[in-house]
Amino acid sequence: MALREDQILRYSRQILLREVGGRGQEALLSGGARVDATGASGLTAAAYLVGGGTPVAGVGSLTLGPWSPGFLASSDDVGQPVASTLAREAPALNPDAANPEGRGGMIAELPSAWSGEAPWVALCGDGARAGVVFRSAEGCVWCFGETVRHLGSPPDGALGGALGALGAVVFQRLRLGLGPSLGGRWLVPPGTLEEMELRRCSRCASRQEPSAP
User: Which InterPro entries does this chain map to (predicted)?
Assistant: First the structure.
């Protein structure tokens, strides 16, 4: 899809980035994200994706939690379905962000059931740190699943909001074909990033082991 003049103006800062450019912005607009979240991290991620031109849609029958008010939801929306709130607020913030078909990759707060096309971005925590686990279409789905099933829900509050911003950037980079196909990062207060050690499925673990002499 060719960018319209109003889109070139709206996304000019992103387009000027070498990693994005016009072709990259077209990829962000033509992709999509399914959001499975009720809290600060997931709704913040959705807001950043909407601002960058990624169409978003809520999935399932989840309702918004007490930490969800922010960019896309108000206190009046607490207890309302995520899907209908995003369907209303996303195009109000950015007309390009409507996603009535519910297409695209998935960004979700743990625990969640994973399915559909990549990229997949999991927002999580371990009680002290916030974390993000991600995979592109080339990343091992079994290693991703083995990792996220041992992690907990993401934090709320300011740390959850920061995690959501990080998750949105990770999702966009995967959509643009940047970075590794599988990985994870810890966000440690007050704002340090650390590599996350992923769990490996039996097949990938056997490939990494040295062969017997």
Answer: Ubiquitin-activating_enz
- Are 31 and 175 spatial neighbours (Cβ–Cβ below 8 Å)? yes
The closest alpha carbon to 163, from 140, 134, 198, 141, belongs to: 134
* 186's tokens: 């810890």
Give CA–CA dist 105/127, Å, rounded. Answer: 27
Long-range contacts of 172-175 (CB under 8 A, 24+ apart): 172/28, 172/49, 172/52, 172/54, 173/19, 174/105, 174/118, 174/119, 174/121, 174/134, 174/135, 174/136, 175/27, 175/28, 175/31, 175/54, 175/105, 175/119
Band of pLDDT at residue 51, cut at 50, 70 and 90:
very high
Helices and strands of the chain, counted as H and E runs: 8, 7
Helix (H) or strand (E) holding 5: helix 5-10
Q: In degrees rounded to 5, what are phi and psi of residue 47?
A: -65, -45
- In which element (H, E) is residue 14 found? helix 12-15
- Residue-level pLDDT at 143: 97
Q: What is the DSSP letter of 189?
A: T
Centroid of chain to Cα 53:
14
Neighbouring C-alpha atoms within 13 Å toward the C-beta of 1: 14
The domain 31-208 is classified under which CATH number: 3.40.1440.10, 3.40.50.700, 3.40.50.720, 1.10.3080.10?
3.40.50.720
- Identify the band that residue 70 occupies on the pLDDT scale cut at 50, 70 and 90: confident
